[in-house]
Amino acid sequence: QQQVKQSPQSLIVQKGGISIINCAYENTAFDYFPWYQQFPGKGPALLIAIRPDVSEKKEGRFTISFNKSAKQFSLHIMDSQPGDSATYFCAAGANSWGKLQFGAGTQVVVTP
Amino acid sequence: DGGITQSPKYLFRKEGQNVTLSCEQNLNHDAMYWYRQDPGQGLRLIYYSQIVNDFQKGDIAEGYSVSREKKESFPLTVTSAQKNPTAFYLCASSVDSALNYGYTFGSGTRLTVV
Questions:
Q1: What is the pLDDT of residues A20-55, one digit of tens each?
Q2: Is residue A86 within a helix (H) or strand (E), and if so which, with residue range?
Q3: Cβ <8 Å between B108 and A100
Q4: Which residue in B42, B97, B98 is closest to A102 by CB distance?
């Protein structure tokens, strides 16, 4: 069973708009929550990551919001650009595990 | 430049054949991983290794085998026992098993059964 559930499966946003992708997890031992960006035919690349001791982390136009009590975290892409069109994966892991569980992915299309 | 090299980029396998996918890293990372990517299913862990000469099964290890004889190399063999091997295979590495810096991924190998 999937330990990290991601939604939506796909979304279309206009240039300049906000893209929001949500993830939920079950295992309370998870203490590392990264987001990866993948372009077609390429491997995923680390975008931004958060630890559960903070509720929000921002890097440029990308922000992670983290709600520990709800066991949910989300990625916000502000001022979306056509170059942001890609598949985004959330993931979760624990230092004691040394491995990541990934969500199913969200395909984002930014229209001009 | 440091990174992870996966080869070949494309691979075609006949029914009943074993094939080996190569993964080499020059990042001096301790841990290495193999994931399988299928449309709509995200990335699923096949095998991982946190130290040389040791590896563990992931969530979908059946029909696959690995070795970790050198720190830099973590080849994956897709055996004939894997009934549905057509997929995009991704190799990754991390500094250590503590996930402090996340994974670095290779560019993947697309395997197709013909």
A1: 999 999 999 999 999 999 999 999 999 999 998 999
A2: strand A86-93
A3: no
A4: B42
